[in-house]
Amino acid sequence: MAENLGLGFGETASVExxxxxxxxxxxxxxRLAARSSMRWALTCCLVSLPIxxxxxxxxxxxxxxxxxxACVFQTSKGQEFGPSHQRAYAISGAGGDKPRAHLTVVRQSxxxxxxxxxxxxxWEHELGLAFTKNRMNYTNKFLxxxxxxxxxxxxxxxxxxxxxxxxxxxQVSRLNKPDSIIVVITKVTDSYPEPTQLLMGTKSVCEVGSxxxxxxxxxxxxxxxxxxxxxVNVSDISLVDYTKExxxxxxxxxx
Length: 255
Fold this sequence. Notes:
By secondary structure, the chain is α+β, with helices and mostly antiparallel strands. It contains 1 helix and 13 strands.
């Protein structure tokens, strides 16, 4: 929109009037909006760059510090755990000088049982799997304890027989179990006149078929004194299976 203004002396000037605020065209408004969006995006980018740079630097420094700490920990761990492993091995190996014995079965000869006792078994103490170590001795059916302490004592006796023997297995009448087999681990000590039963196991043999096999295992910890003697007694020595040394055995070791 233009108007002619009189300036005097017959001269005129043409003045172009700016459009009012509400009279902008749609294209002009679109250009203004686009410029405003670009300015806002540029401002956000400029503000975000320092923040991203700082965050990246922080993460890199933290990762390098963690790697350094891990290296130091591994080094100190190796220095600390190395001797302890050696100490643990030395402690476990120190038990090698403790008294222990493992006896295996031998062919048994019928013997006359002692008064109020079942027959005692003979054992092999040198050949095959059998051994006695560190002052543990075997003599005349007895395993002799060389020093006072807590011992684990164990025995397994395997019996074999036939059903025709059911009801005929010899038993002491006071036990009132004529059709069973019995194993007893007995302790004999000089300070007490009568033998002491440490463990006893029993099984019935009348409910099994012909050519039966019945193992009885006993084992427990006991506080024993130097000079104590241990033996294994059975109700019928003729039924003991002596064919293999892993079927019938007897032993003890200091804990």
